[in-house]
């Protein structure tokens, strides 16, 4: 029997007790789209997570992507997307406090629109981050 615990992409709260069903409709849609897109990414599901406002002290849901140095288990950078139900602010984050870093090389993602559209644009940004193709990113309001 496999001793590995299944970890979903962008697990909500504790990975082994994914709290996805506790999310409201907009947040659930946002996370669902991120999960659908992440299955093709060159990273592991446990390199992603979602923190609810009560877990961070921030007013918004936070989707986190940890970039791991290839061939190691060392996290080189942490990226996050704060979702408020109508828009996203994405940035490189401090690796322990999850606050946006000033002067990050990846630039900032600012998008607005439906939860699904915000998630699609956030997934695009995470994919560019994983491929190392970043800059100051912004998308139009949809």
Describe this structure in words.
The chain has 142 residues and is α/β, with parallel strands linked by helices. Helix content is 25%, strand content 25%. The protein is built from 3 helices and 7 strands, in the order E-H-E-H-E-E-E-E-H-E. It has a 7-stranded mixed sheet. Strand 3 (61-68) and strand 4 (75-83) form a beta hairpin. Helix 1 runs parallel beside helix 3. The longest helix is centred in the last third of the chain and has 17 residues, at 115-131. The radius of gyration is 14 Å and the shape is globular. The N and C termini lie far apart (47 Å). The relative contact order is 0.16.
Oligomer: single chain
* Broad shape: globular
Low-confidence parts: 135-142
Quickly give the structural class.
Answer: alpha/beta
Terminal CA distance:
47 Å
So how many helices? 3
Q: Helix-strand pattern, N to C?
A: EHEHEEEEHE
What fraction, in percent, of the residue positions are helical? 10-25%
* Beta-strand percentage range: 25-35%
Give me the side-by-side strand order of the main sheet.
Answer: 1-2-3-4-5-6-7
How many runs of DSSP E, i.e. beta strands? 7
Strand count, sense and closure of the main sheet?
7 strands, mixed
Mean pLDDT: 88
Q: What's the alpha carbon Rg, rounded to whole Å?
A: 14 Å
């Amino acid at each position: 029997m496999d001793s590995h615990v299944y970890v979903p992409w962008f697990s909500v709260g504790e990975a082994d007790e994914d709290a996805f069903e506790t999310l409201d409709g907009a947040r659930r849609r946002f996370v669902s789209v991120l999960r659908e897109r992440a299955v093709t990414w060159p990273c592991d599901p446990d390199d992603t997570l979602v923190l609810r406002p009560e877990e961070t002290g921030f007013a918004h849901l936070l989707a986190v992507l940890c970039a791991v140095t290839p061939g190691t288990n060392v996290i080189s950078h942490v990226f996050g997307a704060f979702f408020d139900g109508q828009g996203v602010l994405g940035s490189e984050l401090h690796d322990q406090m999850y606050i946006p870093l000033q002067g990050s090389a990846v630039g900032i993602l600012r998008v607005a629109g439906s939860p699904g559209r915000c998630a699609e644009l956030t997934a695009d940004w995470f994919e560019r981050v994983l491929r190392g193709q970043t800059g100051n990113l912004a998308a139009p309001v949809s």
